[in-house]
Specification:
By secondary structure, the chain is an alpha/beta fold. It is built from 14 helices and 12 strands. The chain has 2 domains: about 240 residues, Type I PLP-dependent aspartate aminotransferase-like (Major domain) (Aspartate Aminotransferase, domain 2); about 120 residues, Aspartate Aminotransferase, domain 1 (Alpha-Beta Complex). The strands form 2 sheets. It has a 7-stranded mixed sheet, sandwiched between helices. Strands 8-9-12-11-10 form a 5-stranded mixed sheet. Helix 6 links the parallel strand 4 and strand 5. Helix 10 runs parallel beside helix 14. The chain binds pyridoxal-5'-phosphate.
Length: about 375
């Protein structure tokens, strides 16, 4: 028995879970500090949880493996992960970002870049010629892609962008939130860094805000990113990390089901007279369907958008009649969501006013279809 002969107050003060090897699910690693041996060496290789909690080991190891990367880091949010990349570039670095991408991140980049922090060009990244023209050889440090891109689901060609980046001496980073590591593996297509909002499909239950980065190599940029996470101090809590690891266990079955239902609904929606356009990479009518078919494996994901007759008013009235789809932002959960992006984004939004974004959940396909039929009637 440890602490033999100690008083109750001492025993209570040392209450902790004993190391165990027979857990089927991981314990929640709440400890902020980790012991040293008699030789003063760290027993678990870590001394303080801000530097990297054991709670991160499961999700980080799994993500690095899924993406085919050498290292992964989890962050307090997708935004924390993405902004860590931009903040770790040299001051004044030239970066190219897509015109269609996650609204809050684009807004942050454009505002943060001012005052000489970054030199940003915005380009239609799915147009490979336009991307090529925007990149400056020897000057561009980073090409950022998001594919499929929120909320209009343009698909950018990762291999072509990687080629352009390599020729210019730049790195390619990809926000792969919507595709998940099961459908697209950007590192295998030439990207250096993959980013996920783990708040979405990875966790999958709309109850954790988290983010992740996975790198191909431990580059100088990656080392600065790791320094940023350690020193910046805005880290993921161990309970959130545990929930994330729990959610990730079912990622494969969720994504498979959500992709299948989304494709069926997209096909049905395309035939509806009150729907003027369906945006889904899995439809042959999608402008980059051939790139999507090459780059996305085993499905096209659970996200789609529709344009409806009657402009913003028509879209809001369709959303108002939904009963199974919940009117809420975010994506990738078990429940289907419907959202008028122009309202969510607010002033300055470039989302088409007649567009509704649908995140397909795990409900029965027939119930979702009936709900859309009623909403569109
Ligand atoms: C949600 C989201 C983000 C931001 O992630 P948070 O976890 O909300 O901070 C970034 N990119 C995409 C594509 C997203 O959907």
């Amino acid at each position: 028995m440890k602490l033999k002969g100690a008083h109750p107050g001492t025993v209570l003060a040392h209450t902790r879970t004993q190391a165990a090897t027979d857990h089927v699910t991981a314990p929640i690693a709440m400890s902020t500090t980790f012991a040293r041996g008699e030789d003063n060496a760290l027993l678990a290789g870590v001394d303080y949880a801000r530097d990297g909690s054991p709670a991160y080991l499961d999700p980080e190891a799994t993500l690095a493996r899924l993406e085919g990367g050498s290292r992964a880091l989890v962050f307090a949010s997708g935004m924390a992960a993405a902004t860590a990349v931009f903040m770790s570039l040299e001051p004044g670095a030239h970066v190219v970002v897509p015109s269609a991408m996650y609204w809050a991140l684009k807004g942050w980049i454009l505002r943060w870049a001012t005052g000489g922090r970054l030199d940003v060009d915005v380009v239609d990244s799915w147009d490979t010629d336009a991307l090529f023209a925007a990149v400056r050889r020897g000057k561009t440090r980073l090409i950022w892609l998001e594919t499929p891109a929120n909320p209009t689901w343009e698909v950018s060609d990762i291999s072509a962008a990687a080629e352009i980046a390599r020729a210019a001496g730049a790195l390619l980073a990809v926000d792969s939130t919507a595709a998940t590591p099961l459908i697209t593996r950007p590192l295998e297509l030439g990207a250096e860094i993959v980013m996920h909002s783990a708040s979405k499909y990875l966790n999958g239950h709309s109850d954790v805000i988290a983010g992740a980065l996975v790198t191909k190599d431990v580059s100088p940029l990656w080392q600065r990113i790791a320094l940023h996470r350690r020193g910046g101090g805005a880290i993921l809590g161990p309970f959130e990390a545990w929930l994330l690891a729990r959610g990730m266990r079912t990622l494969a079955v969720r994504v498979q089901r959500q992709s299948r239902t989304a494709l069926a609904l997209a096909r049905w929606l395309e035939a509806q007279p009150s729907v003027t356009r369906v945006r889904y990479p899995g439809l042959p009518s999608h402008p980059q369907h051939d790139v999507a078919a090459r780059q996305m494996r085993g499905g096209f994901g659970g996200m789609l958008s529709i344009h409806v007759k009657g402009g913003a008013e028509g879209a809001l009235s369709v959303a108002s009649r939904a009963r199974v789809f919940i009117r809420a932002t975010s994506l990738g959960g078990t429940e289907s969501l419907i959202e008028h992006r122009a309202t969510a984004e607010g002033e300055g939004s470039v989302a088409p006013p007649d567009l509704l974004r649908l995140s397909i959940g795990l409900e029965d396909e027939a119930d979702l279809l009936a709900d859309l039929e009623r909403a569109l009637a």
